[in-house]
Structure formats: C-alpha cells, structure tokens
Amino acid sequence: MIPVLGFLTYSRFDLADRLLQSIDYPVEHLVIVDNSGKREYQPVKPELVKNLWFIQLPHGLGYSGGLNLIIKSTPFAPYWLLVNDDTVFEPGALKKISEQVDTEAINFLSIMPKWSGFVLGEGAVLKAGLFDERFHPIYFEDNDYERRLLAAGVKAKFINAELGHDNSSTLNSGFHSQNDRTFQANQRLFQAKVAAEDFSAGEWDLMIRRVNAWER
After folding, report:
1. In DSSP terms, which residues pair with 52 in a beta bridge?
2. Tens of pLDDT, residues 143-174
3. For a 10 Å CB count at each end of the chain, is N or C smaller?
C-alpha cells in the first residue's frame, strides 16, 4: 500500500480527475490541496483509496507550500508520492513504486520533467528539510531542493515506474503573463542562494507572497 499520495490542483480539474481514475493500487492517504481558491472542484474518492483528505484554501500556497502541507499533515509516513495533477499513472506503476521505494532517498520516476512526479523518503526530509516556500508560486523550488538534497548527502534512486504527463497544463490555462514575472523573481532568489551557499529551507515571506501573487 502507498502510505501517502499527494498532489496540488489549480485550474485543470479534468486532468486531476483523470489522475484519480488511474489509481490501480491501494493508497492509505490521498491528500489533495486545492490552490485555486474557487471551490469549484470536488474530487470523488477512488475505490482503492482508504482515506481522501481534500484541502481547500482561500488563497493558494504555491507549489512549495502545497507540497510542504501534504508532508506536514502526514508526519508519520515513511515516504510521500508527490505528483502533478496533470500526470497519469500507467498500469502497474504504483505497485512498482511500493515494491522498490527507498525511504532514505529521493526516488525519481519514469517521467519528464523529473520533478513532475517523485517519491520523497522520510530520510531525505530528515536530512534536507522541506521545500523553500519563498519560491512562489512555482519554478526553481525544485532546483533549490535538489542542490540541498545533494549537500545533505541524500542519495537519488530511479524507479522505472511510468507516468504520463501533459506538461505545463496550468500555464497553458492562461497564466503565461503572470509566470513571466514570477519566474524571473524566483530565478533571482535561486541565484542569490547559490551565491551565498545558502542550503536552508528558508522561511515563508509575506512580502514575497504578495508580490508574486497570481490572483491579481
């Protein structure tokens, strides 16, 4: 059984439903974070899922914040399977993950880009911490986390579990102009952390959250 499967959703609820329909292996906790702030989505619990936790927010937490919430709300899991809502599990992929996961590692799967679906072991979080929520709402949080995992001595493993992926579905829903602005801000933050040899998880920043908002 997969202890925790989590994902965030923002605009393409049809793809989120497609992801749910592809679950073909038992899952103990399915955690969905609705970052849209619109209350327009109501997921249906798949038959193989024991517990569905659907979290709606007045304003989105961004990618880093949403993933961190999934992890923090299930603190006793040995690992977390975290995927984008525009992915789909190929038949047998979940079973492979359950059988081959390394709870001390970051486990990458057969999907591109590689951070679109991955398994984060408890050992990795204990060593490297959580994602830096200053990278809001998306981009460069994965680059930052990967360098922090490496610095913390966390090993990377590959599991040949295939996932399909409709890349950049959120951006293609009409958010290119917002992303053009926040992408550059996040890039500057990432470059500053690299230059300062800063391997911390940072702290959530109110001003950054407001300036990088996609809601306005």
Report:
1. 30
2. 999 999 999 999 999 999 999 999 665 555 55
3. C
Sheet holding 156-165, edge to edge: 49-56, 27-34, 2-9, 79-84, 117-121, 106-110, 156-165, 87-89
Report how far residue 12's alpha carbon sits from residue 36's, in angstroms, rounded to the nearest whole number.
Answer: 10
Residues 124 and 69: their CA atoms lie apart, in Å, by 16
Rounded to an integer, what distance in angstroms lies between the CA atom of residue 1 and that of residue 63? Answer: 25
Cis peptide before 113 (omega within 30 of 0): yes
Q: Which residue did the predictor score with more confidence, 81 or 171?
A: 81
44: DSSP letter: P
The closest alpha carbon to 68, from 202, 213, 187, belongs to: 202
Q: What is the pLDDT of residues 68-80, one digit of tens each?
A: 999 999 999 999 9
Residue-wise DSSP of 118-178: EEEEHHHHHHH-S--TTS-SSSSHHHHHHHHHHHTT--EEEEEEEEEE-TTTTGGGTTHHH
Residue type (1 letter), 101? V
Is 0.90 topped by the overall pTM?
Answer: yes
CB 121 within 8 A of CB 70: no
121 forms bridges with which residues in the sheet? 79
Contacts of 146 (CB under 8 A, 6+ apart): 106, 115
- How far apart CA 165 and CA 118 sit, in angstroms, is 13
